[in-house]
Amino acid sequence: MSTRTETRLPLTQDGNRQAFLLLRTVFTVAPILFGLDKFVRVLTPDWERYLAPWMDAIIPGDARTAMLIVGAIEIVAGVVVAFLPRFGGYLVAAWLFGIIISLVSVGGYLDVALRDFGLLIGALALARLASARPKPAAH
Fold first, then answer.
1. Is 100 helix (H, G, I), strand (E, B) or coil?
2. Distant-in-sequence, close-in-space partners of 92: CB < 8 Å, separation ≥ 6
3. Is 119 within 8 Å of 96 (Cβ atoms)?
């Protein structure tokens, strides 16, 4: 059995680790903040305008209740990214895909949908970087 010693570069010299930490941070903080804002409405007073009517019809309750459910899910997604980025990156990417579908369905928000597509790609990059990182050794 061969033992391989891996040397770890300092963070300032490790671009992969820097990218991973940046993406994990933003995909932890942003979903949590957006989720919380569904409850306090500081960023926008009317989150419901982004919800496609057909989606509103399949989510229990009215559009306001639907956005509270969305907010709770976003908070959970951010926490999952913080602790399980390998899975959380894919979770956030799937969530962003749903948001994109809603925005395209509503119409008038194609610019936001395109921005969210860029975020979706970033979430996928996070998941891939997390998957490439060595898993902690079990003791």
1. helix
2. 27, 31, 77, 81, 123, 126
3. yes
Q: With the C-alpha atoms ordered 51, 54, 56, 59, is the resulting torsion angle positive or negative?
A: negative
Give long-range contacts, CB 8 A cutoff, 24+ apart: 86-90: 86/127, 86/130, 86/131, 87/127, 88/27, 88/126, 88/127, 88/130, 89/23, 89/27, 89/123, 89/124, 89/125, 89/126, 89/127, 89/128, 89/130, 90/123, 90/124, 90/127
Three-state DSSP class for residue 4: coil
pLDDT one-digit tens code per residue, 30-46: 999 999 999 999 999 99
As a whole number, the mean pLDDT across the chain is 91
Q: Per residue in 63-81, pLDDT tens?
A: 999 999 999 999 999 999 9
Q: What's residue 134's pLDDT? A: 73
Q: Which of 118, 89, 108 is nearest to 51 (CA)?
A: 108
The structure tokens listed for 79 are 């926490």
Q: Which helix (DSSP H) or strand (DSSP E) does residue 105 occupy?
A: helix 85-106
Query: How much is the pLDDT for 86?
Result: 96
